[in-house]
Write a structure and sequence with these properties.
It is a single chain. By secondary structure, the protein is an alpha/beta fold. The protein is built from eleven helices and seven strands. The chain is globular and about 55 Å long. 47% of the residues are buried.
Length: 299
Amino acid sequence: MSEQKLPELAESADSLELADTVPLALTPSEPAEASATWVLLRGLSRESGHWGEFPRLLLRKIREQQPGAQLIMLDLPGNGMLHRQSSPSEVPAMVEACRAQLARFGVQGPVHVLAMSLGAMVASDWIGRYPSEVCAGVLINTSLRPFSPFYRRLRPLNYMTLLMLSLSRLGYRQREAKVLRMTTRLLKQPEEVLDHWVALQRERPVGVRNTVRQLLAAARYEASRRRPAAPILLLCSKADRLVDWRCSQAISRAWGAPLRLHEHAGHDLPLDDGPWVAQAVGDWLKMRRMQGLDHGEWH
């Protein structure tokens, strides 16, 4: 398969304008091989367009520590630009799809991965099975078996509500409004976000079958108890209605990974408080740089 070129959108974080098309790359002015590459992955039935303004905030903070860094936002099969594809019902197959996308773009690892929810499960499996390809990971509001019981990992009532919304005859706006209320708590302009989400669903709808297959993949996945080779930062929201924050706490204890807790945000932490997430990542990178840690080193 021929190599595809990543679209160059901007020269600096201050001038970034995020397009609606995905996969999306925010590229530096210098050659990619000389800079850090960050891959962003969303969660269940969400796509790159759902990141909102967060990538702009994140890139600015990352470049304070990693000048020339680039972001690549990938969609899982069944979501976004890949909505016509069938979603795998196993997390490892989602990893292979992400690796294939990077290969088509000619991206040479190792990469940093920032991912939330189901995307963070994909990141965990990616790091575990291909340690040479990922040099660091930021996992947001995720849960992993065997560290937490099912009723904390996937709060059954709320996930059943998401499934029923997919099966309902409600219009796009009504469905997305319910999802927005379930996943956020701090939005200052929810109607603007809702308008954007509805537009995404009309353009790239996620089918019921794919939603079910993604839920199945999340329920089936079991991570290794062994600490990953790549260093991990865990971020979570205490007010998350979909995943209990103690799931991230359990992973932190098992792996010895640093954990940052947001007291008030919902499940979609980057949307609720993007500046907080970007600052947490920037602080982590700064701390690692001050300690003289190379890519892939924990301590």
